[in-house]
Fold each of these.
Amino acid sequence: MGRLRTTWNRRLVASFALALVGCAPAPLTNGPFIQQGGGQLISPDSTHPAYAPSATWSPRFGRMGTYLQQRHLRVGEVAAAHRGSTRLLAEGFEAFTPESPDPWEVLGSPMLRVHQTAPDNAYLEFGAPLEPGLHGIQRSIAGEMIRNSVVRVRLGTWMTSAARVRYLGAPQIRWVVATTDGRRETVSLPFIGRASPAWEEQTFLTWFDETVQWAWLQIVHVDRGASFGFDNLVVERLSPDSFAWMTLPYNGTLSTSDSPEGSPNANFLPNGNFEVGAKGLVVWSEQDWPGRGAYAAPTSWQFSDETPIGNASLLVNDADVPAYISLGPFELAEAGARRPAEQYHLSFYARASAPAEVTVEWRICGIVVRARSFQVGMDWGRHRHIFLTPAAVRGAPQGRYAATELVFRITGTAQGQRPSFWLDGVSLGSARTEDPYPPPSPVEVGIIGPAPHPTDLGDLVLLGEPAAIAVHLLNYQGQAYTGTVAMDLLDASDRPVWTKTVQPTVEPGALWNDRIVLTLPRGYYRAKVTAWSGTPASSSILSQDERAMAVVDLLDPVPRGNYFGFAADAGMLSMRTAQLGAGWVAMPYDLGWHSVGWQHATAALAEQPLDAVVRLNGLPAEAAVRQAAYRQWAATTGDAVAAVLVKRSNAGRMASSRREPIRQWLGAPDAEAPAVLVEASELDAPVPATQPTTAPTSQAATRPSSQPDGVVFECLAGWPLPEDAEPELERWAALHQGTLGVGWWNLSVPGRAGSAYAYRPRIESDRRAPAAVQSPDLDPLLSASRLVRSMLIQHIAGADFACSRIRPFQPFESLVSPPDDCLHEYDHAPRPALAAWDWMTSLLNEARPVEWIDKPGDVRALAFEQPGGELVVAIWRPFGWTEQRLVLPGLAGQANVYDLFGAADLSAEIGNHLVIRVNELVRYVVVAAEAHDAALTIIENAEVSGP
C-alpha cells in the first residue's frame, strides 16, 4: 500500500487500478422471508398510506408513519411533543414590500423582490449586490419573549443554481443578541445554503439565557451573495416539556417553588435484574494507550444462572483492568414530576470470586454527581445506600436532568487481582422498599439478539444468514397479564418490513418469550417491541424496547491496500474491521512510550490481515537516539505497518536541516519498507513536475532524495455537509500538482456517524454566551449518506488513499463518552453508517474511478469501473429530501439500481428507461460490462427533471 505512487487527476480520473478482489454479489433477495415466529411480511414500497414514513426525521420518533406510531407511541405522544409552543412571529411575505418593509428593517442595499405565486401566497427572493458590506433584513424580538427559553426558527428555502451559490455565496440566518450589560453577540444558525429543486424546510433551535434584553433575527448577505427564495418563516417559543435538555446553561437563579415532585417510586431503572436481556447495558473497561491517555474498550461478559432472585444475573469475567457496568439512561422522575426528588435509594445484589471493592457512580451527562464504594464478598449480599440529590440538580431548569445512569466500577482486590463479578437486582428509586427487587413497571419487555458478540461490534448479521430475535416478557404483577405485544421490524427509512401482534397470557412471576427468525437482505434494521395494557393506541404502554442490527457481507474479501481506510486507536480495532471494508487503518503511536510495547496493536493486526499507517509521535530530537529508537520500534512491527507518518518537532528541525531527507532524518534506509509519509505542512516549495521521472513498471520511480514516499493532508471542513469541504480539497489539489510522483493521502476525512437508536436533543452551550444554538439533529440515515459522500469527494484532491475520521454520535444507551476519532465504537456502533460503508466498499474496493460528472441543480455522479468491466455510478445531490429524477434511456435490463444500503430499487425501470431518484441519499447504478461505454455517454447527456 505504501508503495503505490500513481496519482489521480482532478475531476477526470483514469488508469489507477487498485489491485483489489472481486465485487460482492447483488443482494440474495429483495425482501425478508420468515423462517420462524410467524408474523406478516410487508413490502417497504407498499402503497398503503399508513406504511409510508414521515418526510421529516424526528430525534424522538424517527420517521415512523401512522401505522408504527399507533403501535409504539403513547396516546397523544406525538402531539405532546409540540404542545405548549408559543408563536412569536410568522411571515409568509404576502404583505411584505421592499419599499415599506415594516416591521422588518432593511440593512445595506439588498436585492429584494416578492413573487406572487397565488392570490394568498408569495415568497421573498433575496440577493445582494457585488459590493462590500452587510445586506439583508432583520426583525426585533423583545427579551422578555425569549428569555430563559428554547426558540425554534422554521423557514422554507429555494435555490436552483448550484453554480450561483458556489461563486457568489449563500446568505446567513443569525441572531444578534443584546444583553443587559451592554454586550452585543452574533449567533449564526446552521443554515445550509445549497441548491435544491424545490422548497426545503430548515429548522433551528436556540437557547436564550436570562441576560437577553433584545434580539434581532437577521437574513443577511455579507459583501455579496446569490439570490435565495424564502417563505413560511415561523419563530416559536417551545415548552420545556417537549424536550430533555440535558446541557442547557444554568446560573442557579431559577425558582422551583412551582415544580412539584412526582409520587414516590421504588425503582426508575428498567431491566435491573437482567431477566429480559441487555436493554440499557454497556460493559466496558478503561485502558491506557501510550501517549494518548485512556480509552473505552470492550470487556467480556455474559448472563449467568447464578442468581439470588429471578433466573438470570450479569457476570463480568475477570480481566487485567478495572471493569465498568453502565445501566441507563433512565428517567429520574415519573410523568408529571417537574424536578428530581430530594434523595434516591440504591439497592443491588453482588458477589465476586474474591473479596473486591465496587464503586457505584451516579452520573448525569457523563459527570459523576454522587459516588459510593462497597465491599463485595464471595457470597451474594444485598447492598443499600441513599444518594442525596445535589442542590444544583434539584434547582436546575425543568427537564435538564431528566435522564441519568448508574455506573458500577469494579476496582479489584487489595492484592491487585481482578475477580469475576456478579450483579443482580439493581434498583434506584425515590422510595425505600423491602422487596427483593422492586420492578419499574408491572411487566417488562426486552429484545435479545441477533447473537451479539459482547467484545465486538454487536448485532452484525452475515448476509444470507438468518437473524434470530428473541422477545422476552416478564410479569411482575400479582395477577395474570393479558395485554397486547406489538412487534415490528423497521428498515433504514423506518418503514415496516415485518409485523406481528400477539395477546399472550402471562402468569404472575412468569417469563413469556417468542423467537423470531428472519432472513434479511443487506441493510440496516430496527426491531421495536411494545407491551400494552390493552390494545395498541387505546391503552397505556407498560414497557418498550428496540434493537438495531446491520446485515452486511462479513465474508467479502477485503484487500490490503484498498482505497478506503479507518482511523482507529489501537485498542479500538474490532475483529470485524477488515470485513467491513477497511484493508488498512491509521493509528497513533508515541515513540516516547516505547517500553509499553507495540503488542496490543499488532495483536489485532495479525488476526485479520490489516495494514497500518502509524502516526509516530515523541520522536527524540537527537539524531542518533531518534534513529536508534525508530529502528528498534520498526523491528517489533513486522509486516503490519505499511507506512509511517512523521511530523518533525521544532527541536528536530533545529537539530537538522529542514531539507534533510526524511528517511535519513528518521533512520529508515531507502530500501526498507514501510513507506515514509510526512504531513503536508512539512513540504518545502512545490517541486517542479520535471524533477520526478516515471520509470518502466519493472522499476521504481525516481524522485529527489529530499522528497518523502508520500504526503498526508488533512481536510477538516465538511460539517454539516461533506461538500462544504470541496473548496479546501481544491486547494490541496493545487498543492498536489507540485508533488507529482509521491503518494497523496487524506487521513482525516471528516464526518459524524449517527447512532442506531433515538437520542435526546442537546444544545451545545457556551456558558459565556447569551444564546446557544443546537447542532443539527443527527439523522442516522443522512449521516450514513454523508459518510459515503465524504469519502467519495476525496477524488477532487486526487487522493491515492482516504481514511475516515468519523465522530460517532453518543448512543442513547449510555452516557459514557466514546473516543471521538474513530468509526467503530466499543459497543453500540453507528450501525447505519457501518451498513452503508459495507455496501460502498463491496462495490468499490476493486474498482477504479473513471469520471466525475456534475449535472445542473447540484446533481453529481462519480463513475467507477470494476475489473470485469462493470460500471458503478454513485449519484446524489448535496442537500435536500425533495427528489429529482435522472432518466437514463435504453438502460433498463442492462443495469440495476441500489440504495445506500444495497437494497435493489425495483421501481427504477419504467419501460425501456432507467429512472434514478436523486436527493441527498446516495444511490448506485451498476451497469453490465457490455453497456459500459454506452451508459457513460447516456449519463453524461441525461437531463435532470424537477420533483
Amino acid sequence: MKKHFVASLFIKCLVFGSAVMAQTPKSSYQIPALFNYYHQNFPQEKVYHLDKPFYASGDNIWLSAYLFEANSRFTSPLSRTLYVELIDEFQTLAKRIILPLDSTGRGKGDFKLPDSIEGGNYRIRAYTHWMRNANEAYFFDQTVPIYKTTAESVLIQPEYIFAKGEKYDTIKVSLAFKDVLDKSTAGIAFDYEFTQGKKFLAKSKQKTDTDGSAMLELLIPKETKLKGSMFLHLKVNHNETIFKKKFSIPVNPQIDVQFFPEGGDLIAGLGSRIAFKVTDEAGRGLNIKGAVFDNLGKEIAPLRTQHLGMGFTYFVPTNLQYEARIELEDGKKMTIPLPKVRENGYVLRLDNGADKLRAYIFQTNPSPTDSLTMIAQANHQIVYLGKFLPTKDFTFNIPKKDFPTGIVQFTLFDSQGKPQAERLIFSRKNDFLKIEINADKAVYQKREKAILNLSVSDPQGKPVEGTFSLTVTDSETVQPDSTISQSILSYMLINSDLRGFIEKPEYYFSEDKMADRNLDLLLMTQGWRRFEWKNILELKEIKPAEFYVERGIVLSGSVKKVLNEKPLENASVLFSHSNEKTGFQMQPNVTDQNGQYIFADQIFGEQTVFLQARNLKGGEFVKISLDSISKPTVNERLTGIRTESMLDAMAFIKASRRQYQINQTFRFELDDQMLDEVTIRAKKVEKEQEDINRPIHGMPDQTIKMDNTNTGGISNILQALQGRVAGVQIVSNGLGGFTAQIRGANSFSGSSEPLFLLDNMPTDSDMINMVPPMDVDRIEILKGATAAIYGSRGAGGVIAVYRKKGSELRETPKPNVIRARIQGFYEARQFYVPNYETPKIQHSKPDLRTTIFWNPLIKTDANGKANIEFYNADNISNFKIIVEGTNGKGSLGRGTGFYKTVEGGK
C-alpha cells in the first residue's frame, strides 16, 4: 500500500502542475521551459522484444522484455507490470499474459501455441499501464506470422485487388495454394463465402488451376452500404480431408500515394524539395515513374522512386495548382493532387552531413524585428536551440556533437511561439555496444554440446556489464522476411519513434552506402511522429494522468449501501489469498469518500482471491464490487505481409510439420512404453481430488472427514464438530447458526474466535453456516503453533472447511463478499534444454527443433563476459546466433555468430 500511495501522490502533483502551467506561450522564450516541464512530469516508456520472426502451430513464442525510459534509453525504474497480448488477424485478443519486471526493467514470458490455432498474421502487443496515458503508438506492436502445420497439408495465402467502377466496386482475391510436401495443388475443390459483419454477400464453389491458384471476385453495387469487417470463408477438400479457413479482407486496400513538402508546406515563390511515398494495401513500397504538372498542363518536375516506394523532387511553386501523374510497374496510371500552395510562410531545408547539418531557412515576408527560434529535440531532451533575426534567405551550420544516436526533430518557431516548419533527421554516432559471440567450434556433430563465449564492450573497448537475450535458430529453415524483421537497434531508434508500418527497418543499419540517404527519405515521408508540439504548447488540454504506474497486480472496486446504492465511505475491506509459494496473505483497507478501495503492488500468480466488506459498525449489509481490468482497443494496422512471404517461409513450415508428426508419433510410442509403470489408476484420480483444496498449512491438529455418518440430521456444518473435537466449543447463536471457540489457542488480541477458512479463503462464521453439510469433504482444526502460519488472525485457532469438487457452484452469494479468479502474474516456462550426455527414453525421439536454444536473460560479468552451454539437435544445417541487449544506461547492442553441424554424434 505504501508504494501505491507514492504513485498516487505523484499523479496529484501532475494535476497541480498542469494548473500552474496551463497557458499557451506568448513568445518563443517560454518554449524550452514548457518542454522541460512536460517531459519531467510525463515520462514515457518503451518496450521490446521477441525471439524469432514467425512460428508454427504447436510452437512456443519466447519473450524477453526490455522496458526503457524514452528520454534516456536507460532501463525504466517506473513500471513493474507488463501486459503482453497475442492478437489475431481479425483484431481479436487471442491471449493475454501479465509479466513481472525486475528492478532493471527486464522480464520474460512465453505463449504456448496450441496445435489447433488457426494460421494467420498475428500481432504481439506489449505495454505498461502508464504507457496508455500517451498513445497506442508507444506500444510494442509486431506482426508475427503463425502457420498452421498440424492438420492441413496445404497452405493458402490470399492477395487482394480492388477496383472502383461506375456501378460496382470490385474485390478480387487471388489465392495461392501450396502443399507443404511439394505435391500438386491443382484441382483442389473448395467452397467460398463473402460476409461483412453478420451480412451474407456472396458464395460459390471453385477449383484451383493447374498451378494451384484461384481468383475470386465480388461485385459490390455503389448504392450498397455495408457495415462491419469483411471476411472470406473457405471450406477446402484436400487429400480426403476437409478443413475451414477464414481471412480478413483489408478495410482500406487502395494504393496509397502521399507527398510531403520538406518542412511541411509548399510556399509560393520558395524552392522546396517534395518527398513522396507510394505503398500497396500491405504498406510495402511500389516503384513508380511520372512527373508533376501544373493546372495549365505544363510538366514541372520528374518523379521516380529511389527506395521502397520513396523518392523526392524539387521545384519552385507559384500560385497555381499541381498534380502528380504516375505510372506503376504493372502499367496502372494514377493522378494525385499535390498539397495546396500557401502564399506566405517558411521553408526549412536540412542537409545531413557526417559532423554537422547545413540548415537553409527561406521565408516570404521577413520582418527585421521578428525573431525566429530553432529547437531540436531528441529522446525528449532539447539538444539544440538557436535564435536569430533572419533575412529572407539564409543558411547556417549546426554541429552534431551533442546529438545522441537516433531521430532528431527540428522545429522552426516564429516570434509568437507558433511552429512554422518541421523536419526529422537521423543522427548516427556508431556508439553501439560491441557484442562478440563465438562458438567453441565452427563445426559440431549432431547432439554435441556447444559452448558459446559472449564478450561485450563499449566503443572504447572497455568491458560492459549488462543484460542480454540470446537465440540460436536453424538458419536454413528460419529465414526472416526482411520486410518485417527488426532488431533492438531498428526498433528503439526508428520504429518506436514513428507511427505506421516501416518496411525493412534493419536495412538502415546495414553496410549499404546508401542507407543514410534512404533513411533520410524515410524520415521525410513517414508523415507522422509520436511527439507533437501541440501537447507542449497547449498544456491546458493535457488531462491528468488517467493510468497510474503499476508496480504489481492492482485490485480495485467500490463498496455501496445495499438499499440505495450510495457509496460507503470508511467501509472496511479485507483482501486475502493464499498459495503454496506466498503462503497466506491478508490485507485490510478502507474506502475513500467515493466508496472506492484499492489494493496495489500485489505480487501473486493466477489464483482465487477473497474480498469482504463491512460497514463502520462491522455490519455485513453492504455491497462490494470488483473493477474489471480495462484493455486498450485493438485497431487494425498494416502488416507488410504479402503472398511471397509464405513461400519464403516454406522451409520453416516443412520443418515444423515434420517435428509435429514426430511429436505425435513419439507421444503414442512413449505412452505405450511407460504404460506398465502405472499400476494403480485409482490413486492418481484420488490425488487430483486432494490437490484441488490443498492447504498451505502442514498437518492439522485434527481432521473430520465428512460422510453420511456425521452429516445425517444436521443442517449446519459446525454442528458436525459438537462433541467430536476436544477443545472446540460450538454454541448456537439462537438464529439457526452457530459460533465456535477453540480452547488452548493463543490469542494476542483478546478474542478467542477462530479464523474460518473456506477452501483456503478466509471467511466468517456466517459464511460457514451457509455451506450445506453434504457439500463438505473435510474439516481441519489448527491450534497453537500449528495455526502460527496464519499470523495474528490465527491466534484464536483455525477452522478450515474444504468442499467437494464442484460444490462451490451451489454457494449462495453474499453481497459483501467476492470470491474471484484473478489472472495475476504469469510464471514464465523454462526453455527446455535436453542433456544428451545422460541417456533417457525421451532421447529416442528425433529432435528437429528450429529454435535450438533461447535464453531471455543473460548477464555479463565485470569483464563483460558470459558463457552459455546447450546441446545441438539432429538438424544437419547452419545455425545463426543472435544476441541483443543493453547496459541499462542508454547503450544498445546487437551481435551475431554462426556455426554448422554434420553427421555423427550420439
Amino acid sequence: METDLPIFSKIPEPLPQHYPAVYWFWHHIPSPQEIEEQLAEIKQAGYRTFLIQPRLAFPIHEYLGQGYLEAYRIAMQTAKTLGLTAGLYDDYNWISGHAGGRTVAGHDELRERQLFWSSAKSERGVAFCGISGIHNCMGDGLGNAFQDWIYEGGQAGWGDWQVVRAYACPEGTPAVDVTAHCRIIANGPGGCQVQVDSVGLVESGARIIVFISARCITARLVNLLHPDAADRFIEVGYEPYRRAVGDYFGSPLAFLFIDQPYTGFYTWKEHFGNPLNSLMFDESLVQIFREKHGYDLGQALLSLVQEENADTPRLRCDFFETYGDLARSRFLAPLAEWARGHGLKFAGHELLGFVGGWGFADGLQGIDVRVNLGADYFAIDEIKDISSVDACNYHPQISARFGASMARAHGRKGCMVEQYSVPVGRDYPAPAGQWHLTLAELRSQAIRHLLSGASTFLFHAFYQTSGSGYDAEPMRNPRFDFPPGINFEPWFHFHPRFAEELAGLNFFLEEVQPQPCIALLYPLRSFWHDGPSGSFNAESAFWNRWLSEHGFEYDIIDEGQVNAAELAQKGYRLLILPGVSVVRNEQFSCEVERFVENGGWLAASGKLPLATQEKGLDPALEQQFREWMESSPRTIYFAGSREEGYAKGDESLPAWMATLQDGITVQPLDGLSMTLVTRQGNTESGPAIALFNDADEERHVRLIVPQSEGVNLLPERWVPARGELQKWTYFEHTDGGLQTDLRLKPHEPACFRFKREAREDVREAGTELPHLCRLDGNAIVETAGLDENNRLQITLMCNQKGPLRLLVRSPEPPRTSAASFIKEIHRLGRDQWQIDLDIPHLPQPIVLREGWALRVPHEYKEKPADMQRGWEKDHPFYSGSGYYSVSFHLDQDALNYGWELQCPAVHTALSVYLNQVWVGACGWHPYHLLLPDNALKPAYNQLQIAVWNTAGNSFYRDTPYQRSSPFPSGLDEAPELHPFFRLRLTAQ
C-alpha cells in the first residue's frame, strides 16, 4: 500500500546477479545500431544478464562466420559499456556439441552412433533380425525445420552398420553368444537385415537377440562417447569465440552455458525392452566396461531387454554407471576444463527427466534420459561451477528445488533456472509456445522458483524479430519458436516493475541460509533398473508436491549423501525413500539404520530396497527393511502408492512431521488450505522467511517465531517491489515465541527478518520499544514502523464498519488520527494500553457498470463498452492497448473517505489516470490502486484505464494455432470503488 509516513528506508541496490537474465535470440546478423538499441532495451526491461542464441531462422552457414563474430564483439563492447553481464551460449539453436554442423564436417567418425536391438525366433537354425522404421522421438511434432537443422538433407540416414553382440536365448537356459555366427545381409540408410546361423548351437525355436550399431551419416549431432568429440567441438565451436572476444572473457562474458547435449532418442519398429530409446555407442565402451566390471558388455545389454532375474539390478546399474561416467568424462569434463582455463565459469544443463513435473521422471513422455548422460544429475552437477536446470510452463514443479539441492550438495547456493513455454492442453507442436502468456503468470512462476532455491531466473527469450504471420512452420519462423518473444508482448513495458521486484526478493533471499530438516532421496539406481515408469516416479511426485505445498524446507539428495554422520551434520531429521528398489550396496541400509538409531526419522513409500548393484536381487535386504520399519518407532512405511492416495484426497501423514521444523511456523487463520509458497532459514542477525500467496484470494496467516531466553526478536519487513525496509512493529511476545499476524493480498510476496537483540539493547527508558501487540477486528495493517525518533507509526486501512480493538505497548498513551472513533482507551498494566474503537458506517462500494467508452488505436472514435465482456468479442485479432474511460460523481461527504479502485478482471496489465493525474499501474493481481485524495473532486470525475493484452490473438491469427475463441482482452467485469478510513496510530 502507498503511505506518506517516512518510516521506510531503502535497502542497498541489488547486484546484477539478482536481476532476471534472458536469452537474446538472433535471427540475422545485427547491425551495430540494432545491437545498441536492443541491449539498451534489455537493460531498460530490468535484465542484467543476457545470452546470445542464434536460432533456426539464423542462416546456419553464417554461424561463427566473420560477420557473426564481428557483431558478437560489438555486442560485448556494448554490454560492457552498459554494465551488463553476458553468458557464452555455446552452440547454434541448442543441443550443445555440433557447432552448427562444424564439429562433424570432414569428420564423419564423430557423427552420432546409436545402438539398436532386434529379436526373432530361430527357424531350422536360422534367424533373421531387422532394424527398420527408425524415427527421432525428440523430433516428432517439431516439423521439417528440426529435421533440416539436425540432419544434412533433412532426414536421418544410417550407415556403417556393425553387429555388436548376438545371443541365442533358449528358454530356461543361459544365453549363448552367437556373434561370430551373425552377419549383415542387407543395409541402407533406413535400416538393416541380419542373419544369424545357430545350427548346432541351440535348438530350433530359440529366441535370437541382436545388438547392432549404426552411425547416422547425415547427423550434425555428435557422438558424446567418442574420445575426440569434445576436442573437435572446442576447436571449431569455442576457439572462434576465444579469438574474437577472448579479451572479454571474465567481463562481461562471465560463464559458458551448455544446453541439452544429447543425441537422437530414437525408437524403431522392432524396439522392445526396458530402455525407451536407442543407446549412444562407441566401440571403446566394450573394453572400458570389461576393465571396470570383469565381464562382457553383452551381458549387461541383455539385461536391458530381457525379463528380469536375480542379476538384472546388478547388470543394469553397472551398465548405466559406466555409460554415464564415460559420457561425462569424455564430453562434459573437457568443456568445463576449457571454460575454467579461459576465465569462464561452467554452467548449463542436460536434458532433464523431471522438467515441468513433480516426479523425478515426469517431464518428457516417451523420452528416456538414462540413454543420454545416464540420468546421474548429481554427478553432472559436480562438473559445473553454476548449477543450472530448466523449467517448462507456469505451474509449480521441482526444477528449482532439484537444482538448488544439487548446488547445496557441492558446496554452492542457488541455481540458474531457464524458463520456457510450450502449449498447454492442446495438440499443438511444442514450438507454438504461449504468445498468450501474461506477466502475472510469468511473475508468479519466477517467484516460485526463487522461493524453491533458484538464484537466477533465465527467461526464454528476448527476440531480435517477431517473424511473420505467413509461415506457421515450427521454429523456422521466429514467431513460432517457443514464444513468447517477451519484448513483443504488448505488456512488456510493465516488465521493469517485475524485474525490480524480483531483484529485491532475490537480494533478500541471498542472505537467508535455509536449514532443511528433510532429505528426499533421488533413487538413481532404482531409475537405472526400473526406467521412467518405475514406481519411484509416482512416489517422488507425491513427496515433492506434498512437502512443497505444506511449507517444508527439504533437499533432494543422492545416495552418496546417505551417510549417518553427514546427514546429522547437515541438520536432516527425516529421510524419505520414495519407491526405492535398488541401492548401491548393503552399506546403504547400515547408514540408514544408524541415522535412525542416532535420533533421525525415516519414511518410505511404495517399494522397499530389494536389490543392490553389488549383489543383484537380495530378498533378505527387503525383508530386513520391512521388519525393521515395522518394529522401529521412528519409522513409517506406506505400502500403497502415496500418489494414488493423494489423488483421492488422502494426505494423512504422522503428526510428528509437523514437529520436525524448528523454524518459523506459518499458521493459517482463515481456514483455507495451504496455497503459500515459503522459504525460510537463518541470517547473520536472525531467522528470516519469505512467503508468497499463490492464490486468487486474500490469505490471513500468523507467523510464530521461536524465541530464546534473554533474547528479543525485532521484526523487519522487506518490500521487494519498492526496495524498502521497515522495522515491523506489529508483533506480540507469547509463550510460544514472537508472533505477528499478516494479511496477504492475492499473489503478494512478503519478506520478514527477525533480528536477535539482547533485551538490554532494546530497552529505552526502562521499557521495550513501542509496538502494536494485537489487532482484533477488520482492519489491514498497511505500515507498522518506527520513525527516526523511535516513535511508533502505524497505518491501518479500515474498510468495514464495526468494533476494532488495539493492544499497544508504549510508555506513553498512544494517539490516533480518528479520535471520534475511540470508545475507550485505558491502561492494562505497565506500558500496555487497550484502545477500543468503533469504525462507523462506510458508504457502499460504487460499481462502475455504466457509461464506459472504449477506444482501440486503429479506431478513430470511442465506442460504448460492455463491461461484461472484453474487447476480444469485437476485436478478436487485436493485440495491443485499449483505452477505457468513464465519468462518475461523488458528493462532498464522499471526500471524507479514501477510495480504492478495484478491477476484478483485467487482461492483462493496466495503467490508471484520474482527472489527468496518474494513479498507478498493475501488471498482475490484485489490480487494486489507491486513488489520490487530491485528485478526487466533489462532483464530476474522469477515470481512464489503459489496458494491454497479450500478443496471442494477433500472432496466432490464421494459423493452425488459432483458438476457436480469442484470448481474453481488456476488462470483462466492472471496476469498483471501495471506500475506507485510514487510521494512524502514534506512540512514544
